[in-house]
Structure formats: structure tokens, C-alpha cells
User: Fold these one by one.
Assistant:
Number 1:
Amino acid sequence: MSTTSDGRNAEDLVAKKLEEKGHQILSQNWLTRYCEIDIVSKKDGTVYFTEVKYRSSNAWGSGFDYISPKKLKQMHFAAEIWAAENKWTGEMVLNASEVDSSNGVEIIEIS
């Protein structure tokens, strides 16, 4: 399996997990020329922006280890662009998700 297909499969797993938790998936792989968001979902009047990190091995750290301050800034920027384009003025939350090679999924709220 290529890295791209691993990433897509991981995003699909996270989207399914979010749906199981009551989220409505609004978009997957939303992108502009400036930024991208892996998953945009909505639950209870709040829009969630979820970054998906897939790791085939934790030898170099977990997926969460790759959510750096720079990545958080990029995620916040992308969420603001999405909100402006969709005229969204409600609550917004940034999430991070880690998927491992056994398809284990963990999702955490980061803002």
C-alpha cells in the first residue's frame, strides 16, 4: 500500500469513528491553494477540524508528536479560511487523530 493510500484509508477510518460519535462529515480533504483540512465535521452546533496522522510504526514517535506549533498555526489558519468561505460564525474546535498500522484510532481535542 502506498503512503497516499495509507493516508486516505486512515482518513476514512477517522471519518467513520467521528460518525460513530455523532458527527456529520461535511468534507474530507478540503483544500485551497493555501491550506488543507483532512476532515471537517459538525456535531451539536460545533464544527470540528480534524488533522489525521498515520504512522506505520511509532519508532519515530506517535502521530500526535507531529502536531507541532507550526502545524497548529496552519490548522488554525485553515479553519479560519473554511469559516470565512462557509460564512460560519459558530463554535469551532481543532482535533488531532492518530491512526496506527493496526488501524487503531485515537482522536483528541487540541483547542
Number 2:
Amino acid sequence: MYTYDTVSEALNGLRQRGYSVDFNRDYDCIICSERQLSLQPNEFTITEVYRFEGPSDPADEAVVYAIESSSGEKGTLVDGFGPSSESASDAMVQKLAVRR
């Protein structure tokens, strides 16, 4: 496992290792609009997780997920953690919570 001090370091490091798709979380899936790609929780695996706290407020947290799809697409998802996290389906909550 790699160690990163910031979200941007993690994203740059993962990109250098082939995680090139930028995912966003939707209610019940993750999406990449640029590639018109949508993955349900059973269609991807979280391979690495990095958590970061804000410098002035520990409650200001972000999580960077390294994701690999069942078809071989590799990308990243940056998500809020805790109260700042958006609503999600039970399946998405379970998928992302397992690795937080």
C-alpha cells in the first residue's frame, strides 16, 4: 500500500499507476460522464482506500477510492466522509463503507 499526504498526491499517484477514469458517485452507482460509463456496486472492486482530514477541521474529511471495474477499467472516486457525504442506496453505502 502506498502513503500519500494529500488528496491530490493520492490522485496523481494512482493516475501514474493506471487509474485514469474519474468516477463520481450517484445514488445507486458510480459514473464517468466523459466515458459514458456507469457501474453498479456489483460491477466494481475497491482496490485501495486513502482517508484525509482537513488541516483545520478533522470533521472535514475526504476519501479517495481506487476502483477497478469487472471489465478492467481503473479509476478513482473522491467522496466525502461522514456528515458531508451525500445520500446513497443501501448497496452503495455497504460497498463504500466496507473499505472506509
Number 3:
Amino acid sequence: MKDKVVEATVRALQRAETSLPDWVLQRIEEAAARESHPLARHHLQFMLENVAVATAKGLPLCQDTGLAVFHVQMGRELILDFSLSEAIAEGVRIATRVIPLRPNAVHPQTRQNSEDNTGTGMPDIILDYVDGRGLKLTAFPKGAGSENMSLVGMLNPADDPFDFIVKSVAKRAANACPPLFLGIGLGGSFDLAARLAKRALLNMPGESQEELQLLERINSLGIGPMGLGGDTTALGIKIEKAFCHTASLPVAINFQCWANRSATEVIQ
């Protein structure tokens, strides 16, 4: 079973780094078709060409192959006789060599590079237990350009969280390789809001009226692809919520660039 997890990790990273999910490609294609600004439309078309070349040649979509993040759904009846985190880390080390991936994981103070995208706290694994005996592993590599723009705001309960989101995106979007996908964590505690925002990215696409209205407000900013103007500043928004303290209103925004990379492997 350990070997299966290692192999699934490598396969998931390989696909996530060299292709995009169909629904993400569809969002970019639809945006290119309706974009009224010629320069913005060209940038969207370049993105589609970039994906086509990367997928055909089996090369990473972007020079920033990201930090290794995984969402694992493990059956409650599944009993493991090995460390799941170490098996996934082994897969990351192999993937770093064979894909190859840029070594991105460094010590936060010394900046010493681990050289294999692992180390303390890496890979980042979000673990959920589900019914059954199977295991589903989703690779979700996260680049620094978009992650660096992410934030948590501790608002007053009377504040409008959506005004805060729109104003924050207006200030930061151009530096996050738009058009964006935005995961929003609303409520909880300081750290729970951030995790909700990451989960929101994993649980896309969002289709609620609230999410679509927020998407419309953000696209009306006119920031556009690569921050050079246009109709398409964001391609998708998902909101995850949790009850919070009566005296607080945490709001987290996890930015994701246009290359919303992910791939899933299922182990039975």
C-alpha cells in the first residue's frame, strides 16, 4: 500500500504540473471568447497555448512549480501500517527529480534549500476521513506569486466582509498573475479562516448567487489578465464559512493564479 501511495503522489503531481483540469480550461476559453479588450484577449489565448504546449511535451506549465500541497480523503475503515505523510513526502522527492520540479522549499530563516521540496511542514497535507476503505489524493501545487498576495483580516462584526474582499483584491490582484481564482474563508478563528480559504480553492468551482455576485464585482474592477486591463480579473470564487466568536469576523482570501493546477488519484 505504501508503494501505491508513493506512485499515486508522483502521478498526481505529474498531471497537476503539466496540465489543467477541464473546468479551468473551459473558464479561460469562455473568458477569451467574451473579452472585449484585444490585449487581454491575446493574453488569455497565450495562456491556452501555454497549456497546450506544456501538456503535449509533458513539461511544467510554469517555472514556479509551487509548494507541495495535498488534499487526502481517507476511508475510515482503511488501516495503514506506515506513515502516510512520509509516503507522500517520498513521492514528492521522486517527482522533484523526474518531472522535474524546481526545488522551492527553504528554511524560513536561513533560506537553506531542502533541494527536494520536502522539509519540516512540507508537504502540506489536508486530511479528511470519509466512508469506506479507499484513499483519494489530490495534488494542489501552490506558487508563491499568488500565495504571497493572500491575507487574513480580523474585521469588526459590523464591517462588510465583501467590501473588504473587493478592496483587498483591487490592491493585490495585479501581482498574483490574474485572472484569478479566489478561495474565501469567512468566519471561524484566525487560523481556521485561512484553512477555509485554502479548502475553498480545493472545492471549486463556486456557483452560489453570493459567489457569482462577488465575482461580478471583482471583474468590474477592470484589472484584467496580467493586470493590464480587461473584463476578466477573476475566473472563479468559492466561499467556505464557519461560525465565529460574537466579537470577531475573520476573513481570509487565498489567491490563486490563472494556472489553477490540481490532479487527483484514487487508491483502492
